[in-house]
Every structure is written in structure tokens, then in C-alpha cells.
Amino acid sequence: MLRPIRLMTLAPGHFHAALVQQQMLPGVHPRAYIYAPLGDDLFEHLARVAGFNGRATDPTGWELDVRAGANYFARFLQEQPGNAVVIAGRNAAKIELILAAVRSGLHVLADKPWVIDPADFPKLAEVFHEADTREVVAWDVMTERFEATSLLQRALARDPDVFGTAVPGTPDAPGLELESVHYLKKTVAGAPLRRPVWWFNEAVAGHALADVGTHLADLAMWLLFPDQSIDYRRDISVLGATAWPLLLDRGQFSALTGRADFPPELAGAVANGSLKYHGNGTVTYTLRGVHVRLTTLWEYEREGSAGGPGQTDTHEAVARGSLASVAVRPVPVEGSGSRPELFVTPTDPADHTKVAAAVARRCRTDCRGAIVTDGGDHTRVTIPDALRPGHEAHFASVLKDFVRYFYAPRQIPAWERGNLLAKYYVTTQAVALARLGG
Fold first, then answer.
1. Distance CA 140, CA 20 (A)
2. What's the average model confidence in pLDDT over 61-67?
3. Residue 312, CA atoms < 13 Å, CB-side half-sphere
4. What is the pLDDT of residue 336?
5. Residue 140 contacts residue 114 (beta carbons within 8 Å)
6. Residue-range domain boundaries for the chain
7. CA-wise closest residue to 420 among 44, 158, 124
């Protein structure tokens, strides 16, 4: 009988630490251990897990053993009642926690970003060296790979009868463009999200290019070169990056954090009564000759949503092929903000009928139940709600992968490691270039 996975959560500071436990999976023991400093981050984490246990539909049954205090990290290193660690919190310190865990012979499931500064990039190789030495898994939380529209976009871009081959593009008209818009004010696990103060400190949280940008850099390789290992030293050339802040007034900051005023530790980012939040940036690079542009944007709230379901983040991705472009774009939905939909537009309008037929064939294979409609100059693919589990449900899918690899580390695809290094090379180089003004 296989030994159960016993989870330990280390210094939870991001709500993703709790979302990993939205569902209970076979092989994962119900008792989970939490090592953390005593404070708001811990209390918010406990409240979310308690909410999962107390919900009316499909409640979980987690038993939490909390070991909190100023000496939490020393206790974690000494006691280790579990065999797997969940890490999702303050980004600047995350890579040190990951290293400490694998050096202790523990499997690690760590939320992005693992590193936020170019100086820490070499530590990623250390993580894998230590993990190999001790035969443990270090796995990152890439939820966007489980989004239904992203999965279908990948399938369509792999189909030469739909996509053709990737267009190299130029810096001004890239072959692949990815853009993510996130909202600071939102609802998570059915409750308004309270942002911790450290979230607004770039030295602790990192720039959005290094955070959300991780998902985009990951998707770029996953879409264009599926199941292929990317060597950042040979296959990537970062061309330029820029960044600009989102300004938040005291009222907005208070609504997000519960604090009446900007605290002293954020004084350096406050000017003329507004806080400069490090949320917006763009980076352009080549990936095996294809020009790619990634853009991360943060806004306070979605206009007109009043904190309702319209607060959902949006994602846009346009992959340009020799035969057609395959795009994911947000489409407004009355009363609920927007949701991503797929659009396939032939490069030559004369190919519309042929491309549309190829799209329909591919959908019958890879997304049975999708609705394919003729838009005149494009083909639209609508994925029914029943095939869209939602962003929060993707964390259970990530945990399932982690459970599988926990028991069989050699089943991890060989390309995963090279691509993890490649995406953090892009994001950390983007941060370095943005600091230099592009």
C-alpha cells in the first residue's frame, strides 16, 4: 500500500495556499500541518480552509495542526511531520523556502513566482540539483494550462490544417501576444479578498512581470512548442521591457487591506497621496525565432461590477499562423463581466471554408460539445459552461498532477524542467530591463 501524502503548508501568505485544499484527493491524508508566523496571513488561510470544511456542497474534512509562532521555521526544519510542502506566500523569500524544503528531503508544491529578481535565478538550478540528489519532486502551480480555452487553443495551434506554422512576426507585430488583466478587488472562495499589505511592496511581492508574467511565459512555450524542451541560453533572446504603475488612493488601499492609511513600509511608493502599485508591464522576446509579447495589467476593479462576479480576471492570447490566427479573447457576458472565447481567422480570406471545416473536425476530437459557428470572416468556438470548471477548480487539477508525480517522479516530462528555467529567465530579465527603462 502506498504511503499517504501528508501536506505541510509553510508560511501561507497568498490565497492560492488554501485553494490547493479546495478538494480532498485519494492518497492525501486529511491531516495537514501549518507552520507560520502568528498573524493576519495565517488567520486568512485558516478561514478559507474552514470555509471549505463548512460549505454545504461537497465539504472537505481537513484536520489542521497549526504550529505558529516566531520560531515556526526552525520548528518546521526540526519536526517535519509531513512529507510534502505547499508554499504560496511572500515571493521574495519563496526560493529560500523551496530550497530548504528539498534539502530536507521533502516534495514541494510551490506557487508562482519562484523567483522575482535576476540575482535569484541561479537558485532554480540549485533546487533541481537538491531535488535530484534526494529523489523528491519540486512542482510549480501552473493553473492556466487547465483553462478550457487555453487547452483548445493549444490543440488548434498544433493542427497544421487549422494553424499552418507559426509566423515569426516582428517586435511591433509579434507572432504570439499574451495579455492578462487582473483586478485587485475580487471575490475568492465566495468571500471578498483581503489583500495583505506586503502585496503592495515590490521588494516583497515582486513586479507583476515576474509574478503573473510567469503564467504568460509558460503558456508561450506550451502553446507554440508543446512537449518540447526550451533552452533559455539558446532559444530565447529578450529584446525589451517596460513597466508603469497603477495609482491607488487611500480609500482604495483601505478597501483592499482594511488599513486606514498607507503604512510606513510603503512610504517610498507613495507620492501626492497615491500609492504606486507595481502592476503593469510588457516584455518582448524571441522564442526559437518567433517574436512574443507578454503584457501584465492590474486594475483596481472592473468598471460597473461593484464587487460582483464581473471582477473575474481576463486573458487574451493571439497566436498567428501561416494559415490562420487562433485567438482567445474576453467576450462580455451580461451580468457577469466576461468570459474567454476562441476565434480562428484565416490569413487568406479565401481559406475560410477550409479552415472552418478543420476547426470543426478538431473540436469533435479535442472538445466534444463545443459550438462552432461561422462569423463570416472568422470561425467562433464557444465552449459550454459544463466544460469550464473555473479558475479556482484548476488548483485541484494541479494537486492531482502533484500526487501522481509524488508517487512516480520519473513520469515528469523531460521538457518541464528546461521550460521552468526558461520562463523565469524571461520574467527576471524583463524585470531587469524594465528597471533600466526598457
1. 12
2. 97
3. 17
4. 64
5. yes
6. 7-141, 145-387
7. 124
Other beta carbons less than 10 A from residue 283's beta carbon: 27
Nearest C-alpha neighbor of 409 from the set 215, 143, 134, 142: 134
Cα separation values, 328 from 12, 180, 191, 382, 434, Å: 32, 11, 28, 11, 27
The one-letter amino acid at 373: T
Domains 7-141 and 145-387 fall in the same CATH topology: no
**Residue 220 and residue 129 in contact, taking contact as beta carbons nearer than 8 Å:** no
Residue 145 per-residue DSSP state: G
Per-residue confidence band for 308, with pLDDT thresholds at 50, 70 and 90: very low
Helix (H) or strand (E) holding 19: helix 16-19
322-341: pLDDT as tens digits: 999 999 999 888 766 788 99
How much is the pTM? 0.94
The percent of residues in the chain predicted with pLDDT above 70, rounded, is 97
Fold of the domain spanning 145-387? Dihydrodipicolinate Reductase; domain 2 (3.30.360)
Rounded distance, CA 382 to CA 13, Å?
36
pLDDT digits (tens, 9 = 90+) for 121-154: 999 999 999 999 999 999 999 989 999 999 999 9
Give the Å distances, CA to CA, from 423 to 27, 227, 314, 435. Answer: 31, 15, 21, 19
What CATH fold (topology level) applies to the domain 7-141? Rossmann fold (3.40.50)
In 3D, which of 128, 123, 89, 85 has the Cα closest to residue 107? Answer: 85
Q: pLDDT tens-digit profile of 189-236? A: 777 889 999 999 999 999 999 999 999 999 999 999 999 999 999 999
